[in-house]
Amino acid sequence: MSTWLALFILALGGILLVANDSGTIASLDAETFGFVVFGAALLVYLGGGLLGSYGGRAGQMLRDIVTWAAIGLGLVTLYAYRGELMPIADRVASELIPGRGMVVEQSASGEAEVKLTRRLGGHFTAEADVDGKSITMIVDTGATTVVLTQGDAKAIGIDTKSLRYNIPVMTANGTTMAARVRIGEIKIGPLTRSDVSALVTRKGGGLSESLLGMSFLSRLRSYEFSGDYLTLRG
Predict the structure, then answer these.
(1) Pairing of the two strands 102-106 and 133-139
(2) Per residue in 98-151, pLDDT tens?
(3) Quick one: how many helices (H) and strands (E) in the chain?
């Protein structure tokens, strides 16, 4: 019985949509009315099945209905506020998966640009390809040059033991010494720069992540901060 009633609701709704010329039905636009009809038909169909499967267990059926209604309301709420929640979701994802917050887009002029999402700690990070190795780097406009940790320097093939650590640099944990090097190539998405000046901090220098400083950023066409996003344009 519930199946036939659901089909009747769908058929009646279809007829009203086809015959409608005003653009609204029962004060609803055509699209919204279609969703309401579909939802009503689905509710009737599922309700009939539920009544049959639960038998006389009205209490259990009511609890299940309330549970699913709460889940549905939660999903609708998330969808309704998706615009406000997306920046938060991006920041959480970029914190849990460094580099996840990097998106390659195309500007109105057709140029490729890289959009970075601010992490929960307030930093912007980029998944950089440094001489063929993937390295997560903190974007730091206050750093005059790219700065590599000992581990990242070794990963790209730099002999850190032969370097001269004679340049003082400031880190979050104070002053340390660093050695000057040249990096063959750094790529951030489609943005590539060759022969980049950089520093390598000595072992135990207090730098937890490598920094993407101005020796790379200043060679881009532009970079722009906008709320929780940083856009790099090459």
Answers:
(1) unpaired
(2) 555 566 666 666 677 888 888 777 788 888 999 999 999 999 998 999 999 999
(3) 6, 13
Q: Which of 80, 114, 137 is the last residue of a domain?
A: 80
Domain extent, residue 174, equals: 91-233
Element (H, E) at 37: helix 30-54
User: What does the block give as tokens for 10?
Assistant: 């769908």
Per-residue confidence band for 40, with pLDDT thresholds at 50, 70 and 90: confident
Residues 28 and 74 in one domain: yes
Note the pLDDT tens digit of each residue in 153-170.
Answer: 999 999 999 999 999 988
In a domain, residue 86? The reply is: no
pTM here? 0.58
Please indicate, yes or no, whether residues 62 and 107 belong to a single structural domain of this protein: no
Domain boundary among 24, 47, 80: 80
* DSSP code of residue 195: E
The CATH number of residue 98's host domain is 2.40.70.10
Length of the chain measured in residues: 234
Look at residue 111 and tell me if it is in a domain. Answer: yes
The tokens describing 14, both together, are 């279809």
Mean pLDDT of 69-93: 68
- Give the integer Cα–Cα distance in Å for 178 and 200: 5
